[in-house]
Prior knowledge:
251 residues, alpha/beta, Rossmann fold, 2 domains, five-stranded antiparallel β-sheet, 10 helices, globular
Amino acid sequence: MxxxxxxxxxxxxxxxxxxxxxxxxSLRVRRHTIHALIGxxxxxxxxxxxxxxKFLVPTRGSxxxxxxxxxRAAPAxxxxxxxxxxxxxxxxxxxxxxxxxxxxxxxxxxxTAFHFWRSESSLDQLNxxxxxxxxxxxxxxxxxxxxxxxxxxxxRALEIATTLALEPEMLLLDEPMAGLAHGDIPRIAELIxxxxxxxxxxxxxxxxxxxxxxxxxxxxxxxxxxxxEGPYASVAEDPRxxxxxxxxxxx
Length: 251
């Protein structure tokens, strides 16, 4: 695996009782890029994503991250290595404030996540970093706000902040625009672009305008296989993609 590739798969395949959901997928995700995984419904995007984030074990094939074979690694192992799945593992606690939510994630990074008997004052040292992360994702006015009361788009920003607290080298985002109000989409897209300036992002996304605007590379899946790959301009002009995906209006 070359130095500019952070995540690579070879012949990644997943079968469910004879049904092949992902077949022979080979990916190369370059460092410090935003790489999107798209395709019509039933294309195998979610299964592929779950294989990469270790929520599923492949039937065949291999996954390498930073040159290390992580094919059989557990989700917690790869998170410690800097490969972090957002929106799934970065749970938001609705009754805690924005600052407290981020502080829980910071505790986890310090290895003190479950020391709930620690005094409140011993955790105050994390407040500055928690507030800094909140500011980075556009939540500077919400430090003391209860997470459950935040608008949905702001909750998504908070989830990204709790993920950033784990200091990931690579973020895997599962449909980051899902459920967002129209006005929130540009804000979260811009946030992902900022986050990616010194990190790598791989995302499954249905919103084609977002994919076009912020992705460096796009991999199109169809029936569990890679149909094509490249920058948006070339992918969008591929007649096979137009037939399989662009013209359908489906994600």
